[in-house]
């Protein structure tokens, strides 16, 4: 049996689901002749590290306790086995051995995690990301990450096979003409509600009430999260683009960005009339509005598009994500991937799938 050390940054919703899934899949791991062992867990200011590099790493009972501890909103540093830390690179140094995998399930800024990735690359460790930020910052970090074993399936469409599908298309010599995606469950919900006749402000309020939006809905309506995913798709396609080259349409007027959250909610219905007119003009042509990321060699755009009601994107309803790949081989009808594009369990499963793949390439 090969023991593969896991050094995990982030013990939030996805991080905790991932620990549970790693513990629950010992049998599946054994089938491939390996066992994942946690050697370090870190949150924003603390860590728990396996005291020795024993085969078992952190014990199952301790991991289960840490999952509960974090679910209760406590800090790792305050756990009896925890300590304060602010140096993720040092954690990579002390907690790994050859074949280790560093997993980033934080939403930390690229600069915060970059030194740890540099260390992982120096040591030949694998890297798995659910965090989009390291992949959407400076291209030098993109190149560093790609200089060794790397997977990042969950950054686009959570557990859906989006990046792996794109990789396979490229690796097998297909020519990818266009990738189109509805990549935000929140904005998908809002667009479906508009189609069903609801006003824009009412749709956003309902999405908020159902817990589909971030606490400040502008974080969804700005389109920036979709833009990050579009940039990851573009870079995977081989286009060396940066965030500032993307055309991104926010779903609110520019002056709303500076409003307090209360003022934003109070003025949201000012957007209704224009949105209703766009819905009506699309409907007159047999189209519906969708918030679409459009990626091709011509560039990347992120915003509202009128698409035929019968098209895959037009037929999409609710919070599902949909990604369509138009290629030389899938020319007449695109290859389509669809399903839940958020949620801690599917996201963690995407990360775990990446870990299974790296376990077979990192030695
Ligand atoms: N949730 C989803 O459906 C979904 C889907 C696709 C992708 N993702 C991505 O997955 C990542 C995790 O999402 P989540 O929902 O689990 O977020 P979350 O619940 O907010 O958890 C984030 C975790 O990262 C830790 N963290 C933040 N900064 C850190 C740092 N500098 N060093 C170490 N740890 C740090 C936080 O520490 P504290 O506990 O100390 O705050 C927390 O444990 C995000 O990048 C998100 O965009 C999520």
TrEMBL record:
Keyword Protein transport: no
Pathway: Amino-acid biosynthesis; L-threonine biosynthesis; L-threonine from L-aspartate: step 3/5; Amino-acid biosynthesis; L-methionine biosynthesis via de novo pathway; L-homoserine from L-aspartate: step 3/3
Enzyme nomenclature, EC number: 1.1.1.3
Record-listed NADP(+) binding positions: 10-15
InterPro entries: Bifunc_Aspkin/hSer_DH, HDH_cat, HDH_CS, HDH_short, NAD(P)-bd_dom_sf
Residue intervals of the Homoserine dehydrogenase catalytic domain: 161-355
Residues annotated as binding NADPH: 132
Keywords for the protein's UniProt record, in alphabetical order: Amino-acid biosynthesis, Methionine biosynthesis, NADP, Oxidoreductase, Threonine biosynthesis
Family: Belongs to the homoserine dehydrogenase family.
Protein name as catalogued: Homoserine dehydrogenase
């Amino acid at each position: 049996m090969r023991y593969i050390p896991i050094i995990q940054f982030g013990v939030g919703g996805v991080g905790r689901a991932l620990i549970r899934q790693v513990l629950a899949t010992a049998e599946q791991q054994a089938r491939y002749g390996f066992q994942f062992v946690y050697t370090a867990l870190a949150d924003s200011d603390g860590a728990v590290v396996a005291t020795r590099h024993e085969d078992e790493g952190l014990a199952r009972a301790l991991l289960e306790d840490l999952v509960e501890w974090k679910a209760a909103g406590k800090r790792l540093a305050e756990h009896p086995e925890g300590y304060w830390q602010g140096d993720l690179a040092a954690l990579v140094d002390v907690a790994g051995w050859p074949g280790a995998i560093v997993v980033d399930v934080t939403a930390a800024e690229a600069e915060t995690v970059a030194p740890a990735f540099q260390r992982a690359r120096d040591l030949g460790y694998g890297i798995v990301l659910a965090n989009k930020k390291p992949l959407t910052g400076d291209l030098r970090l993109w190149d560093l990450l790609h200089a060794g074993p790397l997977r990042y399936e969950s950054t686009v469409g959570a557990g859906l096979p989006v990046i792996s599908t794109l990789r396979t298309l490229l690796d097998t010599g297909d020519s990818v003409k266009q990738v189109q995606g509805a990549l935000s469950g929140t904005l998908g919900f809002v667009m479906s509600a508009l189609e069903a006749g609801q006003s824009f402000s009412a749709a956003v309020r309902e999405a908020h009430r159902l817990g589909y939006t971030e606490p400040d809905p502008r974080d969804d309506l700005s389109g920036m999260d979709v833009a990050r995913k579009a940039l990851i798709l573009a870079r995977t396609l081989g286009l060396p683009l940066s965030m500032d080259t993307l055309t991104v349409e926010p779903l609110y007027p520019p002056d709303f960005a500076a409003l307090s959250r209360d003022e934003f909610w109070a003025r949201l219905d000012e957007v209704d009339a224009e949105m209703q007119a766009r819905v009506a003009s699309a409907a007159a042509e047999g189209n519906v509005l969708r918030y679409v990321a459009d990626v091709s060699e011509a560039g990347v755009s992120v915003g509202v598009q009128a698409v035929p009601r019968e098209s895959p994107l037009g037929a999409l309803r609710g919070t599902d994500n949909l990604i369509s790949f138009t290629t030389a081989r899938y020319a007449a009808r695109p290859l389509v991937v669809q399903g839940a594009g958020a949620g801690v369990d599917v996201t963690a499963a995407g990360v775990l799938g990446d870990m299974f793949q790296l376990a077979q390439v990192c030695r």
